[in-house]
């Protein structure tokens, strides 16, 4: 019998379906739903093509229910649509079968949380980000029914989108994961060109670039000052970014600039807007617990990595959602999260620690830093520490460690005002004479403090008067 709305089926094709079913075709007559439960996937496909429509199939097996129940059973068995039946039979979809929906399907919408699209990258990211889970590539291949090569390609796609993807060496048995917590290993970095007896660099922290209270004019002035003084390296102690507006504390979305609610919007803004000066590089860390760390802890997206390496940016274009490659900044070097070491001086023996700690401030400006110095074990002390997070500008020497808190380049925000936290808006230029063994003979910290501009008085005119 001809399939309804499909035209007369090809005789050879129907004959092949009949041969696949064999005696089962006759046994299916009047067998109801119980008759199809024992069919293999290929036999189910052959029965579907042989009958042509769900009503014809229901009539053949004597089933009085709704045809949609039959469709549900085929779907549960993993045979989604008539085209899948042709595929199982290794047959091309014939031109006469107009019941096949040939319209182009709409592309999957990117995940609003990550911007990842596709049927594999999104689910793969969701699986791996859960508490830093580790799976071998072979396990992922089995789980998603994709080749190891396809899994590797999707991991690269996730990495290009700005997420911290880690794949161990070991072929198909390599372990893959997405990091959402800072690594426990503190790395070391030799600052290029600073292996001299006299070292000069700039020190800043907590610029919170996207925040409406960011001291943008003062930040630009600071880089001009550094350039005038011959500074070629700026050490930044964290919170360069204020983080996406849709993360963080209640009301944070109102404190950042409009259009910077998502992590990739913030990363692109930093790449476009952070100060550039010829011959000068900025070496920075980030916090894994606050601001840029909010999206890192939730999704594994690293703002610092994205700014330095570049990333894929999902953007709404004339043809819908587009994925654009945003090149990173060669003059901005991301060192890592929370705490990293930079080495300078002869043979790079002088240790500078960049630190962005956790926790709040205290009643005394120096208290938290003093407790940090007391906690260091012997042999692990740096010669100089640049400590951010507290938004305080000062210099002192607990346990013979030169400590500079560079302050902030962001005016007091509404959040800080509610928490009764002041903002020490400042930038520092540091000069030091260093011995061959790494010891700092003389350190000349040069602070430059900024003071808030005079605010205009605003008068409420809508209040009742007596």
Describe the structure concisely.
This protein has 466 residues and is α/β, with parallel strands linked by helices. The chain is built from 16 helices and 17 strands. The longest helix has 13 residues.
What is the CATH level 1 assignment of the largest domain? Alpha Beta
Rg: 32 Å
Secondary structural class: alpha/beta
Strand order of the largest sheet: 4-11-12-13-15-14
- Strand fraction equals 15-25%
The CATH topology of the largest domain: Purple Acid Phosphatase, chain A, domain 2
Number of E strands:
17
Low-confidence runs: 1-8
- What does the largest sheet look like? 6 strands, mixed
Q: How many angstroms does the end-to-end distance come to?
A: 91 Å
Tally of alpha and pi helices: 16
Mean pLDDT: 85
Give the tags.
466 residues; alpha/beta; Arc Repressor Mutant, subunit A; Purple Acid Phosphatase, chain A, domain 2; 3 domains; six-stranded mixed sheet; 16 helices; elongated; disordered N terminus
Question: What does this protein look like?
Answer:
With 466 residues, the chain is an alpha/beta fold. The protein has three domains: 11-88, no CATH class; 121-178, Arc Repressor Mutant, subunit A; 188-449, Metallo-dependent phosphatases (Purple Acid Phosphatase, chain A, domain 2, 4-Layer Sandwich). Helix content is 29%, strand content 20%. It is built from 16 helices and 17 strands. The strands form four sheets. Strands 4-11-12-13-15-14 form a six-stranded mixed sheet, with no helix packed on it. A six-stranded mixed sheet has the order 10-7-6-5-16-17, with helices on one face. A three-stranded antiparallel sheet has the order 1-3-2. β2 and β3 (175-178) form a beta hairpin. α4 packs across α5. The longest helix has 13 residues, at 148-160. It is elongated and about 100 Å long. The model is unreliable at 1-8 (pLDDT under 50).
């Amino acid at each position: 019998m001809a399939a309804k709305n499909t035209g007369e089926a090809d005789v050879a094709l129907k004959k092949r379906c009949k041969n696949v079913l064999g005696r089962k075709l006759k046994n299916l007559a009047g067998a109801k739903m119980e008759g199809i439960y024992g069919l293999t996937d290929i036999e189910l496909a052959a029965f579907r093509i042989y009958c042509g429509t769900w009503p014809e199939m229901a009539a053949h097996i004597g089933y009085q229910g709704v045809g949609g129940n039959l469709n549900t059973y085929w779907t549960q068995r993993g045979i989604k649509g008539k085209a899948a039946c042709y595929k199982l039979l290794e047959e091309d979809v014939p031109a006469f079968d107009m019941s096949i929906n040939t319209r182009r399907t709409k592309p999957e919408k990117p995940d609003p949380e990550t911007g990842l699209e596709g049927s594999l990258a999104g689910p793969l990211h969701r699986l791996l980000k859960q508490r830093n889970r580790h799976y071998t590539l072979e396990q992922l291949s089995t789980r998603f029914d994709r080749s190891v090569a396809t899994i590797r390609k999707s991991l690269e796609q996730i990495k290009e989108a700005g997420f911290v993807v880690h794949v161990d060496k070991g072929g198909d048995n390599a372990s893959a994961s997405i990091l959402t917590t800072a690594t426990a290993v503190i790395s070391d970095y030799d600052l290029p060109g600073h292996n001299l007896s006299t070292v000069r660099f700039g020190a800043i922290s907590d610029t919170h670039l996207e925040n409406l209270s960011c001291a943008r004019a003062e930040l630009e002035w600071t880089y001009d000052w550094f350039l005038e003084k011959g500074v070629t390296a700026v050490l930044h102690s964290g919170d360069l970014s204020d983080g996406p507006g849709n993360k963080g504390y209640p009301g944070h979305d109102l404190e950042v600039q409009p259009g910077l609610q998502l992590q990739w919007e913030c990363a692109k803004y930093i790449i476009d807007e952070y100060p550039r000066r010829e011959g000068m590089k900025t070496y920075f860390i980030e916090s894994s617990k606050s601001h840029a760390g909010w999206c890192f802890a939730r999704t594994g997206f690293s703002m610092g990595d994205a700014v330095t390496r570049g990333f894929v940016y999902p953007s709404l274009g004339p043809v819908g959602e587009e994925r654009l490659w945003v090149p990173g900044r060669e003059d901005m070097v991301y060192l890592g999260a929370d705490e990293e070491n930079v080495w300078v001086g002869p043979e790079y023996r002088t240790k500078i620690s960049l630190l962005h700690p956790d926790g709040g401030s205290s009643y005394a400006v120096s208290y938290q830093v003093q407790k940090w110095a007391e906690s260091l074990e012997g042999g692990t002390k740096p010669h100089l520490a640049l400590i951010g997070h507290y938004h305080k500008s000062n210099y002192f020497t607990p346990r013979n460690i030169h400590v500079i808190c560079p302050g902030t380049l962001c005016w007091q925000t509404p959040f800080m005002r509610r928490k009764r936290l002041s903002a020490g808006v400042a930038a520092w230029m540091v000069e030091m004479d260093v011995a061959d063994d790494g010891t700092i003979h003389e350190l000349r910290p040069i602070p430059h403090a900024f003071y808030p501009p005079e605010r205009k008085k605003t008068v409420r005119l809508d209040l009742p008067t007596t």
